[in-house]
Amino acid sequence: MARGVGQTVAVRLRPRASALLLVTSLIGVAAFCWPLLIHGHDGTNLAHSTDAPWLFVAVLPLLLAVVLGEMAEGSLDAKAIALLGILAACGAALRVPSPGVAGFEPVFFLLIPAGRVLGRGFGFVLGALTIAGSALITGGIGPWLPFQMFGAAWMGFGAGCLPPAKGRYELVLLAGYAAVAAVAYGTLLNLWFWPFGAGTSTSYSYTPSAGMIHNLHSFLFFDLTTSLGFDITRAVTNAVLVLLLGRPVLGALRRASRRATFDAEPVFG
Length: 269
Hints:
By secondary structure, the chain is mainly α. It contains ten helices and no strands.
């Protein structure tokens, strides 16, 4: 696809990268959804409370493998990797003045246009690296970190899956996606936290011996009553930032992408 002004760079995920992203995402889905998928006893939630470090150890090599695989197959070059590092650092820096207070989290803003312009795989890795970098800067390293990395990675990936659009329609599309993705991010993080944070005697507590329907109902009640306000603030913040700053950021990313290699075929002479 030609890379004219205002066009989205066409990035095809190579088979190797697609397989790695699938494996990584399946690990993430299992890590988030285990409370709804298992039927255990009262000690089940305690048994899974120490899973986060192992999840973090599993995610980092897989992310590195995705990047190396794309480099080996000619989809990314050194300039593209440098751009990945710059965008991850800029995204991490956005978290310093706004560490999630009242849901105000512009750290996700750059993921949307970057995933849109530079592709699904790039957006996936960028989301995970942005959260990891911001955690190092703000001291936000904890059992929640790998789950935040997955949530942001899927946000960047989804931006690369959006249908074609131009001009004002593209901004509206991206703003709408930013709002929906921000709410989905908060819901996913609640799903990780809920079995350990809701206590054992409330109306929305996780009950290991109950079935999926019961626990799903309890989780939705927990999500709506504890964090919907934060999720809405996060959604509005990122949607407004996309509408206000999306056009110049998209333009800058498209100019930068033309100087790097995205989905270029290697040539041997």
